[in-house]
Design a protein that fits this description.
5-stranded antiparallel β-sheet; elongated
Length: about 170
């Protein structure tokens, strides 16, 4: 009875320090100890997978912040969730032109704003993006002298459901 408890204690201690490589002992037993061991193994596996997802998110976040591309992330409700530094800088560069089209535009306070910030009648855009397939949506936006190429890709979860959007903006002003 004490040997399995000691093994479980060591396994739990390893998981607490994010060491997920050792399989949980006693899984082949056909009693409560075996059932507990299999459940603990399922937890170990889920934690290991979560650690991998967390690492992937960390890398993706670093790439998003560090790229020279101008990127914006929208959630499924078309609310701006994130902008990288390149995106903010592009808007700062063209703020006067953008304000001629969109009075009151503030490149410093876009996070949390709806897509209507850029297009007051966004219902056709919303409808088109809700039905976005695997091919990106592309358009050229004109803000007086400033011209911006916009490319929109969907963000999909593991069930292939659309959960948000990545917008890549490129200054194509002559």
């Amino acid at each position: 009875f004490f040997k399995p408890l000691k093994g479980f204690g060591e396994a739990i201690k390893s998981m607490a320090t994010q060491e997920f490589d050792e399989a949980i002992p006693f899984q082949k037993r056909n009693d409560e100890v075996g059932a507990f061991s299999r459940n603990l193994e399922a937890l170990r596996t889920a934690l290991k997978e979560g650690e991998g997802a967390q690492r992937d998110a960390l890398y993706g976040s670093a790439a998003f912040r560090g790229t020279s591309a101008c990127l914006m992330l929208l959630d499924e409700d078309f609310t701006i969730q994130h902008l990288n530094d390149g995106m903010t800088e592009l808007f700062r560069c063209h703020v006067d032109s953008i304000r001629q089209t969109l009075p009151g535009f503030d490149p410093e306070n876009l996070k949390g704003q709806p897509i209507e910030t850029f297009h007051p009648d966004s219902s056709p855009i919303r409808k088109g993006l809700k039905n976005l397939g695997n091919d990106p949506f592309q358009a050229i936006l004109r803000f007086n002298e400033a011209m911006i190429s916009l490319k929109i890709n969907g963000i999909r979860n593991s069930q292939n459901e659309l959960t948000g959007y990545v917008l890549e903006w490129l200054d194509v002003t002559n």
